[in-house]
């Protein structure tokens, strides 16, 4: 038996036949719920099962017998009992299968209706409310609707005890066609302190929070115009004003001061927190961005420039990270429709019922959009102008238009059907200032809404905790020495001089070792580094990658970092790590880092004595460290995992 067969591809159909080893095959599926064509699912596998069964068997046996049985005509068993939704919702859901997606679309509604198997609800209780609303402020209108639903007996839902009660936040799910709407709704809910949880993948680096952080990192790294342009626009400057400010390097004093504050920060996490605080981006989306960046930084040896490249690549790729609410919390759930397959909720709010959003334009984004009245109708054109030869040519404009449209809207209708049938008791459809044709086509009264949340008072202590699911890399678990350093030692006035200053000194040291013509520019720290390097009589190597493999509780892990300087003599190897700190307050934490490097080098040079020391560039003090044993390092990893 194969379940959910409407989501299978032709290849999977063939594989099923090859693997079955029997002629007793049963497939279960509902063509109305086939919504994964982007993963090569073919709805005709279930709609035309018998025909395809015979065709695929013939094709597989064309040059050799691979399928031992000759298929007979498949028996069809229709399942008509629905154990989730009320009859009102079931009846309403069938209407969407014959709803036009555009005003010009032509549908054979009679043929579609003949294919639909009527469903009967298992419950006689039917007090369902099916409503629709539109608003220029759709996010706020949805929040107002949620506020009206919670604790309202008019929207009663069935509890685990079989009794009906007024709904809680946790009884409501907001479903969207696209991730971006759910992400923005989540931020709006956070602004009003309404408990809401996004479940599923979020393109975290395409959020406003991530783009603001990227802008400031670009400014810190190379004073980039692209960074200044975004933060100036965020502050309300016009395009012409932004250009003039950048051309004259006349940045607002408050921004320059903020930039200097960021330069003094010791950690990437500190920079991110400061940026998010400045722009009041303290919601769960910002938390995801922060946790993701910290996870990347703690498991790599990325410099700030490399972290910028990582974020830029993540924006381009649209990479997603899972964000899930903690179990048992009373919060509204937000999900994409695709993510809800197989799930059910007492109350469903289907949001973003807007033109070019649902149905999707199919253009891969919002850069190209199709508006129905502008459509081009002629595929072929006659012309005597091209090449001076009369001919019938393909209309390239129509080709462009076709690329901007999905091949057909049938799957979009099925997606709408899936969304509505997630609801057990009540359904609300919501659109913005440009609602889609679907909303006009289905039999529901549409209420224009001007939301007012001035009196909204959320239930206290109902916020759901958020966690970020960072996919485990293939192979051994990987850590950076930064992973094990307690960042609390960098909080407050600790004598640190910021990442910018530290990077400048490290870059000078590396270039000096490489023999490049570099000047100390009167920098006291650089002069101390130069004096140290000039005093060494052995061979020196700078910026050496170091990876220490360890087995911790029968699991392989790797800790990797960069050694600032190796001083190599015939009898001894000296590991030297530069620190620009004005105090030795963090030395115990730095010992963890140096201990990792010590064992890497000791394993590489077993016949030589190995030392490890910290060179404080401010005063030229070189302090040796007592390295931790490998057993200590294993325990450090073990403790970190707990």
UniProtKB/TrEMBL annotation:
GO terms for molecular function: 3'-5' DNA helicase activity; ATP binding; DNA binding; exonuclease activity. Gene3D superfamilies: 3.90.320.10, P-loop containing nucleotide triphosphate hydrolases, PCRA, domain 4. Its EC number is 5.6.2.4. It comes from the Archaea. One of its GO terms (biological process) is recombinational repair. Keywords: ATP-binding, DNA damage, DNA repair, DNA-binding, Exonuclease, Helicase, Hydrolase, Isomerase, Nuclease, Nucleotide-binding. Residues 87-342 form the UvrD-like helicase C-terminal domain. The keyword Nuclease applies. It catalyses: Couples ATP hydrolysis with the unwinding of duplex DNA by translocating in the 3'-5' direction; ATP + H2O = ADP + phosphate + H(+). The keyword Hydrolase applies. InterPro entries: DNA_helicase_UvrD-like_C, DNA_helicase_UvrD/REP, P-loop_NTPase, PDDEXK-like_dom_sf, PDDEXK_AddAB-type, Restrct_endonuc-II-like, UvrD-like_ATP-bd. It is an enzyme of class 5 (isomerase). Signal peptide: none annotated. SUPFAM superfamilies: P-loop containing nucleoside triphosphate hydrolases, Restriction endonuclease-like. PANTHER family: ATP-DEPENDENT DNA HELICASE SRS2, UVRD / RECB / PCRA DNA HELICASE FAMILY MEMBER. This is DNA 3'-5' helicase.
């Amino acid at each position: 038996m194969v379940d959910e067969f409407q989501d299978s591809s032709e290849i999977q159909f063939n594989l099923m036949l090859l693997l079955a080893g029997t002629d007793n095959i049963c497939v279960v599926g509902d063509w109305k719920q086939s919504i994964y064509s982007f993963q090569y699912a073919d709805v005709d596998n279930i709609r035309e099962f018998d025909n395809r069964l015979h065709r695929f068997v013939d094709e597989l046996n064309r040059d050799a017998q691979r399928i031992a049985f000759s298929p007979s005509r498949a028996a069809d068993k229709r399942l008509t009992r629905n154990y989730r939704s009320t009859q009102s919702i079931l009846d309403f859901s069938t209407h969407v299968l014959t709803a036009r997606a555009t005003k010009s679309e032509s549908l054979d509604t009679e043929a579609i209706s003949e294919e639909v198997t009527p469903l009967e609800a298992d419950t006689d209780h039917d007090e369902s409310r099916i409503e629709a609303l539109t608003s220029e402020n759709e996010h706020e209108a949805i929040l107002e609707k949620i506020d009206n639903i919670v604790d309202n007996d008019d929207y009663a839902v069935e509890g685990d005890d079989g009794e009906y009660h007024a709904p809680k936040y946790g009884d409501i799910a907001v479903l969207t066609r696209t991730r971006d709407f759910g992400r923005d709704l989540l931020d709006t809910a956070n602004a009003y302190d309404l408990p809401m949880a996004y479940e599923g993948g979020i393109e975290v680096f395409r959020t406003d929070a991530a783009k603001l952080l990227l802008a400031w990192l670009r400014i810190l790294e190379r004073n980039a115009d692209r960074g200044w342009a975004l933060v100036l626009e965020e502050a309300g400057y016009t395009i012409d004003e932004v250009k003039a400010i950048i051309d004259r390097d006349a940045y607002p004093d408050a921004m320059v001061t903020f930039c200097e504050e960021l330069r003094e920060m010791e950690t990437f996490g500190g920079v991110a927190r400061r940026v998010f605080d400045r722009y009041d981006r303290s919601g769960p989306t910002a938390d995801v961005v922060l946790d993701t960046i910290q996870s990347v930084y703690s498991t790599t040896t990325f410099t700030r420039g490399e972290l910028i490249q990582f974020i830029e690549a993540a924006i381009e790729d649209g990479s997603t990270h899972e964000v899930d609410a903690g179990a048992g919390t009373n919060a509204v759930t937000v999900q994409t429709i695709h993510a809800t397959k197989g799930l059910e909720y007492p109350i469903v709010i289907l949001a973003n019922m807007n033109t070019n959003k649902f149905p999707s334009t199919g253009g891969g984004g919002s850069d190209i959009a199709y508006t129905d009245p502008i459509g081009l109708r002629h595929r072929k054109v006659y012309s005597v102008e091209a090449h001076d030869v009369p001919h019938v040519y393909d209309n390239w404009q129509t080709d462009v238009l076709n690329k901007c449209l999905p091949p057909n809207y049938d799957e979009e209708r099925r997606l709408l059907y899936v969304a509505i049938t997630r609801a057990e008791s009540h359904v609300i459809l919501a659109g913005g200032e440009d609602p889609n044709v679907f909303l006009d086509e289905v039999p529901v009264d549409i209420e224009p809404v001007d939301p007012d949340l001035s009196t909204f008072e959320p239930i206290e202590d109902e916020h759901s905790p958020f966690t970020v699911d960072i996919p485990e890399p293939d192979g051994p678990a990987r850590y950076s020495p930064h992973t094990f350093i307690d960042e609390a030692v960098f909080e407050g006035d600790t004598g640190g001089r910021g990442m910018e200053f530290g990077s400048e000194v490290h870059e000078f040291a590396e270039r000096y070792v490489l023999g490049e013509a570099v000047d100390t520019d009167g920098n006291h720290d650089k002069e101390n580094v130069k004096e140290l390097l000039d005093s060494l009589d052995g061979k020196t190597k700078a910026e050496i990658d170091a990876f220490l493999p360890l087995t911790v509780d029968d699991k392989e892990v790797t800790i990797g970092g960069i050694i600032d300087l190796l001083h190599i003599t015939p009898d001894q190897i000296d590991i030297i790590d530069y620190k620009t700190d004005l105090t030795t307050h963090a030395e115990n934490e730095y010992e963890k880092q140096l201990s990792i490097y010590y064992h890497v080098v000791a394993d590489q040079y077993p016949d030589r004595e190995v030392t490890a020391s910290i060179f404080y560039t401010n005063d030229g003090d070189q302090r040796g460290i007592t390295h931790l044993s490998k057993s200590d390092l294993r325990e450090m990893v073990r403790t970190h995992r707990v």
